[in-house]
Amino acid sequence: MTLCPDGPILVRGAARIVTGDGRAVARNRPTIALCRCGGSAIKPFCDGTHKVNGFTSDDPTPPSAREGGCGGICASEEPCDSLDKSPGPSPSAPG
To answer: What local confidence, expressed as pLDDT, does residue 19 receive?
Structure first.
């Protein structure tokens, strides 16, 4: 897992993601971005809204993230700056 500065949490590999009530969240990609700004229209996945809603994180920024280690991967695997902010797919069928 990688905390992206002022952005999502990237989860790489076979980690199982569950909701607060224990339901499994479908994963269709080996790397997913989870929203932590609270503004995503496709929660729990990131849709890039953190770039426009002013979200900032307090966590320390590791060198790999400062150098692009987060890769701008949001729900569409496109750089966050280029994402369409329309609601997009439902949380059960990301991206």
So the answer is: 86
